[in-house]
Amino acid sequence: MYLKNICLFLIIISNIFLFSGCETKKQQLEKKALIELVPSAEITNETARALEIDYVENDYAENENIKKIRIKNISDFNLSNISIKYNEVDSNKNIVSSSENFLQMSLMPSEVIYVELLCKNHIDDVEVITYNYTFNENKVSVDIKNNKFTITKIKKETNDIKDYDVLTTSDIYKVQDNKEDNVYEIKVKNLSKSDLGNIKIKVAELNEEKECIKVNDIIAYEVLKSLEEKKLQIILSEDAKYTELIGYSYDNISAKANIYIDKKIGKVNINK
User: Fold this and answer.
1) Cβ distance 234 to 203 under 8 Å?
2) In what order do the strands lie in the sheet with 257-262?
3) Which CATH architecture is the domain 51-153 placed in?
């Protein structure tokens, strides 16, 4: 009887650890899925409409030409190379001009970015008519006005980000001896064997809800030599509650190419 109870106890304990391990593995896979695009996911009539776009009240009373929109990724996959096309209309809803805006960051599921559009004079409002994005090997264009979408196959990326992700960065920290409260710094180090030029660090400012309200480009105006480390300064807006490093770009002098590292979705873009 005693031996039977011990065996029963061991079985219960084993099951507890087994289920605990499964739950941990599940959480790890869910977290990994936020970084990696899901190859098996398919674009359908429902999932193609991946963005929710809302028009936000103008916060700039002194400049009525600035219009603001809120864009949210309502899909289950990561979106990159996002752009919107919009019309600028007058008080009679006549189209004055049309423009295109390219978002400066990729959006993971449920992420939000606020976009400011600087319009021409005498513009009453803006109307987003189409938006575009890239997902896996698909370039998707959604025509909001005519309720249509098109999918174009693009060349599969074969570049490994590990071969190009050559900068290490510190956390963004406040400059204590500066008179201004919103001056921050970030340390950047070149781990490659090559000298890198035209370095731009992209930092997103987030509000209390961790929605992106602004994207800053921090520029290093000098070449960063191999294994060299530098401090770069950034001035944040008063509304920034959090910051996030979303990516960086540089010129690979020897390869004669501009490299962009998208830290959000773990991808590399090479422009020669």
Assistant:
1) yes
2) 51-56, 66-73, 112-118, 212-220, 196-206, 242-252, 257-262, 267-271
3) Sandwich (2.60)
pTM value is 0.81
What architecture (CATH level 2) is domain 161-271? Sandwich (2.60)
Question: Do the bridges between strand 66-73 and strand 112-118 make them parallel or antiparallel, or are there none, so unpaired?
Answer: antiparallel
CA 64 to chain centre: 28
Measure CA of the first residue to CA of the last residue in the chain; give whole Å. Answer: 76
Q: Would you write out the chain's pLDDT as a tens digit for each of its 272 residues?
A: 444 444 444 444 444 333 333 333 343 344 344 444 444 467 777 789 999 999 988 765 566 788 899 999 999 999 999 999 999 998 888 999 999 999 999 999 999 999 999 887 778 889 999 999 999 888 999 999 888 999 998 887 778 899 999 999 999 998 877 667 789 999 999 999 989 999 999 999 999 999 999 999 999 989 999 999 999 999 999 899 999 999 999 998 777 899 999 999 999 999 88
The ranges of the chain annotated as CATH 2.60.40 are 51-153, 161-271
3-class DSSP state of 94: coil
